[in-house]
Amino acid sequence: MDATTVLAEINGNIATVGYGLAAIGPAIGVGIVVGKTIEGVARQPELAGRLQVLMWIGIAFTEALAFIGIATYFIFV
Amino acid sequence: MTDARPAQPADRTPTSNPVLRRALIWGGVLAAVILVVSAVLGLVFAGLPGLWGALIGTTMAVVFMGITAASILLANRFSGSDLFVGAFFGIVLGGWLLKFIVFIVLVVLLRDASWLDTTVLFLSLVAGVLASLVVDVLVVAKSRLPYASDVELPKAPEDD
């Protein structure tokens, strides 16, 4: 069976694939942000406050993309 | 043999608490403004379903974006504990995971609701998310954070 036939056999809602794509980016992003924060706090625990704020702003930007990505389910059929 | 630990342990509360609290408050204020604007626009362009879409969309954006800061504030209450780092990341990332599960369930539930306009909901959600990012950046840019969490610094002059 060639690739075109296999692709033609796939059925279901393509938006599910969109969700998968929308999940990959933030997963990697938040993983890096949090991992680096752990690293920083482990090196200098007294900087925890500053690092937390930076982590939070990083998470906020990353998750904004996820929210918009998942919510496109509302407008794309 | 005497106990090596000091009688009064140093306050290890992270210095980020005031910044996060201020971000939550200003996020709430801006959310109220966006709620009114998007509700009026939704009502004008899409009628009653548009109004519901705007109200729910803005509320979803602000609540879900605010949960991160709220979870950090909650986790910082455990700053005295030996398990602080584990508890902190458990609470923050657990809250993050829970938030996305709830968000996806809401999206699936509201997708086929006939009593709201999903386009207005999407647009007000995006507006709410962007506004909350703007508030976060402004609050962080205007904030002053002492470097160390466990020392008493001279009070900074009030400027906001």
From TrEMBL, chain A:
Its main location: membrane. GO terms for cellular component: plasma membrane; proton-transporting ATP synthase complex; proton-transporting two-sector ATPase complex, proton-transporting domain. Pfam families: ATP-synt_C (PF00137). Gene3D superfamilies: F1F0 ATP synthase subunit C. Key component of the F(0) channel; it plays a direct role in translocation across the membrane. A homomeric c-ring of between 10-14 subunits forms the central stalk rotor element with the F(1) delta and epsilon subunits. F(1)F(0) ATP synthase produces ATP from ADP in the presence of a proton or sodium gradient. F-type ATPases consist of two structural domains, F(1) containing the extramembraneous catalytic core and F(0) containing the membrane proton channel, linked together by a central stalk and a peripheral stalk. During catalysis, ATP synthesis in the catalytic domain of F(1) is coupled via a rotary mechanism of the central stalk subunits to proton translocation. It is a multi-pass membrane protein. GO terms for molecular function: lipid binding; proton-transporting ATP synthase activity, rotational mechanism. The gene is atpE. This is ATP synthase subunit c. It is found in: Cell membrane. Keywords: ATP synthesis, Cell membrane, CF(0), Hydrogen ion transport, Ion transport, Lipid-binding, Membrane, Transmembrane, Transmembrane helix, Transport. The chain crosses the membrane at residues 12-34, 54-76. The record marks E63 as: Reversibly protonated during proton transport. Belongs to the ATPase C chain family. Residues 16-75 form the V-ATPase proteolipid subunit C-like domain. It comes from the Bacteria. NCBIfam families: ATP_synt_c (TIGR01260).
